[in-house]
């Protein structure tokens, strides 16, 4: 593309030109936009997951540590971006990218994204958002209904009420979880006779006033790392986020939960919150939410459900039951940018009680004044974009029945893949799918036979070798860029809780085919066959077992 | 636009179609995109700030509290959005929208926004971002250099280092400020012999171990409300965010700051952080940062500078000096979505010491593992979009000299407006601009004469009436939708700190003309002239003063 006089002289006139509406579509910017669009479609059409280029080489293109002195032509800059950035981005929309919770986007969201960014609304306050504020409250209301199923009167009364909020829209699940626990903490150490409340007086004063040695939060050992972050940020301390053991399906053990709660109370501590996980990040399993709600009620703790990933399952009539009990939660986290197919940056926390957000209410003199409907009075973040529009549009254009089909198909595909893995002599499923997530690993056939005997000593000695092999295969496959699965480390019951590295797949992309899944296994087997030194060490260990 | 078979049947084939690349540009989606683009350009071309429609009426369009059962045609949904949402959004890009820090965007960012959203990268980890990770580190490096001006070796050594980070990219200034204070808190109550550190053990244990009665944060009484939120979230308590009195230019009084620090220490408390404001939200003034840094050093406190709005001033050779001392800060907040003309959702916190982020480091088994370059190990948020690209592009296409011109012109325009106000018989400047922000109000000429005599009793009795009038004018002007200024409540020294409601303008939009500013005053005068009952009460009070 040739140089264009779009803007590259530093004078007022040429500078102001970049802020004035370009004459579409044959303007310079119109041509650049078309070029970008075509390139983006080309990128999204490639069924690879990444180009092979080491990170260190990419870093060379991003070295200049000073703000460039002189302006660059938009056309030149665009070429730089396409060549150095886009070409070396990850094809998260590729149907062969099945390693993380980011997958394909419906294409109708892309022009809407441009609209959303172009409008540049700020949802912290009505004065910079107007209709976007009722829209966001509407989105929160719809997801609140998805979880809590209250009647029409409830939503007519609370959805648009200035003093209330059915939840908070935020950038993602981490902020949603922190917000939920912030509310829980502030409600527990609330203002009362002789105490102005934790928000005003601080945590130490709150503990002292209420006579608690410490606050604790209970969550399964499979809980998301953001909860440890929340415990840190909120001043509770990561040690007070208590990991409760799970059963062989990675679900919290209720007896163990009760016991941990009793221990805490016996020691003068207080169980501030119990967190149920509805779709663990690593294995996709769902905690027994109803029973957890009961325990929470018994110990008078806030019950939060982290359904960041699994929450969308509520749209499936067939699978909704898996999350039974979620409606008992005081708060629920759902990420629209996971199984709701919305672009990155759309998380929500929902509150059963429309007044719960009072515990974290903030005001100022120039915005979010008392009595205003400004959303910023009840959010952790301040200025926020109009991302809620993307959720609103996805809900309308896909519809509940559309989501249901997507979710049912994903789960079915995960079961198909688990069966396919089981049919192989040299792979094994480590955790079965409950939703569309499963873990597995490559194990050479002879090793598999040894493991099946269940000898603890043998498992202990072989596992590190298998872990090294799994790590190697995962890295090599990612670098080759044809397909991508992620990896994590679990403590499977069938292997006596020996720390075990596994492949992890999330089958949410509707375009992932059965043939592609077979390809993934074939590629992994091929990579394994070339890992001669790792295999050598594994077989040597095998021989030494006798 | 007619109904199209884009997607409105719930079957696998039609559903999957929304995830497959549309044949541009004459496809249905291509036509919808063109239609949206034209509408957006039309919206952005209107020099009004909002259409007149009461919020209650808008809320009627966003009432349905259940997820729609059936899918809607994209074309139908688009019409709904244009009619019900876009038409009733706020024209934040209008040159007559001068009330908040959100202003115009350069148009080249819009096609890039579509690219950014379409790529759907997740910057929490390399596996879902690849080249976007070095790019974001590069952006952080450039802004770090803008503040700290370290040499090339420094950036070569630290910018891309896995164990370090020169800052954290986040959704906005609030999260940036919370992150900065989180680091300050965790560094203060760090692990040491016999104590695992606050991150692990919690705030109460940290206070006890180090023997502090309480932690406090010092900031001018003009500090942003997000700091109170940070004090709440972090468990410090809002009462321990101590508001230090300001001088007649809304700058922190150093003597008062020293005194407050001494009081806290005398009472067994600890000054955890001192916060300098570089561009207060309400008046745009800059604290004496060098002197504050000195005090911070004396009391061994973390020195943070909240330059969310004013930070971009560092790109102006002429005005950079106003922020002298910012390079002494341990951390600095800058919002790119304010004076850097980037869309909503781009905040940064920068750290002088590349190791500072260790205090808030988090890891997991499946991502942000030890030794990885995953950005998520050092951020408050988890999943994040590729917004850093927008900052990167704006820095390159506008260049430092381009920003300099924009900033210099904005400040000049603010001085012009202040002079214009001073020339009026019935307006008065309340706070003069230091950057491009000023406050003023309408005061009928006879009242102005009375106020000028400086009688405290007269001021006390007239101010409430003037406040009601200012409020009325601001609301009415906003509702009329021709132009928009915001309002806040200050305690001006010239009026014996009597709480005074003022108009607040931020003159960052390069397309705002001098004529438009004259129009704003003319419109306000006209609205005032019709406020007969408020004026009546004011004049009655005047008469009663005798």
UniProtKB/TrEMBL annotation, chains A, B:
Name of the featured protein: Putative pyridoxal-dependent aspartate 1-decarboxylase
SUPFAM superfamilies for the chain: PLP-dependent transferases
Any GO MF annotation of the entry: pyridoxal phosphate binding
Residues annotated with N6-(pyridoxal phosphate)lysine modification: 338
Membership in a protein family: Belongs to the group II decarboxylase family.
InterPro entries to which the protein is assigned, alphabetical: Asp_decarboxylase_pyridox, PyrdxlP-dep_de-COase, PyrdxlP-dep_Trfase, PyrdxlP-dep_Trfase_major, PyrdxlP-dep_Trfase_small
Keywords: Decarboxylase, Lyase, Pyridoxal phosphate
Gene expressing this chain: panP
Superkingdom in the source lineage: Bacteria
GO biological process, one term: carboxylic acid metabolic process
Gene Ontology CC: cytoplasm
Keyword Lyase assigned: yes
Record flagged with keyword Lyase: yes
Pfam families: Pyridoxal_deC
Cofactor: pyridoxal 5'-phosphate
